[in-house]
Amino acid sequence: MTIHYPNGQQPRKHYSASRDLPTPHQSIYAKRGMSLEDEINHSNQYYLANHIAVIHKKPTPIQLVKVDYPKRSAAVIREAYFRRPSTTDYNGVYKGYYIDFDAKETRNKRSFPLKNFHPHQIRHMRECVDQGGICFAFIKFTELDQIFLLPATTLFKYWDQQSDGGRKSILLKDISAAGFQIHYRLNPRLPYLDAVDQMIANKE
Amino acid sequence: MTIHYPNGQQPRKHYSASRDLPTPHQSIYAKRGMSLEDEINHSNQYYLANHIAVIHKKPTPIQLVKVDYPKRSAAVIREAYFRRPSTTDYNGVYKGYYIDFDAKETRNKRSFPLKNFHPHQIRHMRECVDQGGICFAFIKFTELDQIFLLPATTLFKYWDQQSDGGRKSILLKDISAAGFQIHYRLNPRLPYLDAVDQMIANKE
After folding, report:
1. Share of chain B residues as helix, strand and coil, in percent rounded to the nearest 5
2. How far apart are alpha carbons B64 and B61 in whole angstroms?
């Protein structure tokens, strides 16, 4: 789940408590370290600023219900709801390749629960792979502070095995074996395009 | 401008008048024909359903201010504002190529005003072109009911000429000469990937 997409999660204090415009995430999370999303966004800003890649997080889709249009000031959304995204959260272009991925965190220490993915996200990634895109999942084991890039094709294999009585999660050791571990660096914080380069090489 | 991004435009009746969830655009616009956005979304649905391309419109970015979390029901956004998108509205993947474009409508009959583009959209398209993406503008002359795909590189040329004392708009005849006219069809309504095929051919 992305942090912008509550549906049923606990209230987010920085929204419900504050009537001011939200501060950027890095300050929201300053006290408890960055979320995976913030780390990815920072890395994408670095890649963009250095003309290495153009990858952005998509805005959270909103269902508008009521919008006021006060005179001489900006439109105010007075009633709206979070909608389930129909795609993954991140996409863009790198070296001419279409890049598409989603980012997930788990507090588990031994395996990643597949229920973190929605069927429509898997379907979207299949469609992108069929069109020649480079698709993967960013998976962070927060308690272990370990981050992996798991190629979508590997994710599909475990996803499909569920319906054949397979396990509902992917073991860390399997993610570690089939994926690419991303080690923190200063700039970019998450140098994940190095792993993407390997995926591109394997693809060709 | 996308219809989801008012900033200063007239109130949208179907938002301000209705407290119900908005109906899909095709019904909102049924009485006055489809907007260019609706026509593009329909075409993208066709391309997706037929495994030809995966191209989606990005959600409109929203600045959340206040979100309520009622017990046992979905989070309700109580105060939020439309933010200016930092990229174009549409992107995706087709035959392994990264596709990125924006759609603009004008009521003019002789030329397309460049002020319809924001500098950040031009910058984003330059970055995507530098990464090997296929970028263009969807331009509709609503009064003439003529639609063109204008390659981004051509758009950049006219955009840059403004600062050298060039005109602030692109003449229809120049768009017609440098771009690709899209003629309505039943399915997809706007077969614009035919023009993209030519852009890809010219690229190689």
Report:
1. 35, 25, 40
2. 9
Can you tell me whether residue B107 is helix, strand or coil?
coil
Cβ–Cβ contact A72 with B under 8 A: no
Find, in chain A, the residue whose alpha carbon is nearest to that of B89.
A58
Taking only residues 41 to 60 of chain B, the set having a beta carbon closer than 8 angstroms to any beta carbon of chain A reads 48, 51, 53-54, 56, 58-60
Name residues whose C-beta falls within 8 Å of residue A30's C-beta, 6 or more positions apart in sequence: none
pTM of the predicted model as reported, rounded to 2 decimal places: 0.83
Q: Where are the alpha helices (DSSP H) in chain B?
A: 13-16, 25-28, 36-49, 119-130, 152-163, 172-178, 193-203
Percent helix, strand and coil across chain A, each rounded to 5? 35, 25, 40
> Is this complex scored with an ipTM above 0.85?
no
Q: What are the tens digits of pLDDT across the range A24-82?
A: 443 444 435 689 999 999 999 999 999 999 999 999 999 999 999 998 888 999 999 99
Tokens of A19: 């009537």
- DSSP conformation letters of B2-46: -TT--TTSPP-HHHHT--SPPPPHHHHTGGG---HHHHHHHHHHH
User: DSSP letters along A31-49, please?
Assistant: GG---HHHHHHHHHHHHHH
Rg (CA), chain B: 18
The CATH classification number of A2-203 equals 3.40.1350.10
The 3-state DSSP class for residue B157 equals: helix
